[in-house]
Amino acid sequence: KGFQIIPFKDKLPILSVASNKDEDFLFFGNSIGNVRLLKLDKDLSKSKIYQTITDHISAISHIDCNSELNLWASASIDGYINIYTFPLSKLVRSIKVPTNKCDFVYLSSSPLPSIVAITEEKNIAEIFVYSINGKLLLRQKEQESISCPIIIKDLNKNDYLAYIMNDTIIIRSIPTLIRQVCIDGLKDIYAIYPNEDMKVLYGINKTGTEIYVIKDENKKFNNR
Hints:
Layout: E1 14-19, E2 25-30, E3 35-39, E4 48-53, E5 60-66, E6 71-76, E7 80-85, E8 91-96, E9 104-108, E10 114-121, E11 124-131, E12 136-142, E13 147-154, E14 159-164, E15 169-173, E16 179-183, E17 189-194, E18 200-205, E19 211-215, E20 221-223
Antiparallel strand pairs: 1-2, 2-3, 3-4, 5-6, 6-7, 7-8, 9-10, 10-11, 11-12, 13-14, 13-20, 14-15, 15-16, 17-18, 18-19
């Protein structure tokens, strides 16, 4: 058939899915704030629930796992971010984003372990950077909504935040949020992805009729 069905039953809507780097664990966040860890066997038919986390009280908006830090993070729509050890899922700390809302959360390992949170309200996005200990380091407001945020690495394995804003790709260093790259004029672009040899970023427009190949010899990136 070309695919395999993993048996997984949950009566509640799944709103966020993530995996660790080795892809032997899957994280599912549901509409009442539960996160389930599914351990994948080589024989996928034997995959089973490894753990269920019930610390959030609102729907899960995003999940991220960083194998380099041995941590994973979950964000809920009421603005809470929880950080857990991996894979035992011991709660390390909980952070409340000042906007009382959190749409995305990412864990960055280099050059400084940090937590990146993104919120959006009335088509205005705000980016928060926290130390791994939960101290707010920086906040950056964008006067537009942003889409397709991803964490990418350069050749030195340093992390950057890349996202689309108003037909423009913006890439900021982490944790400083200094803008490193700004590529505009990409009409109706809605998705970006870096290739494996770190030489280009690919983008696609909303109609699927055009693919952008974005090359910058001074900044070479790869996905995490």
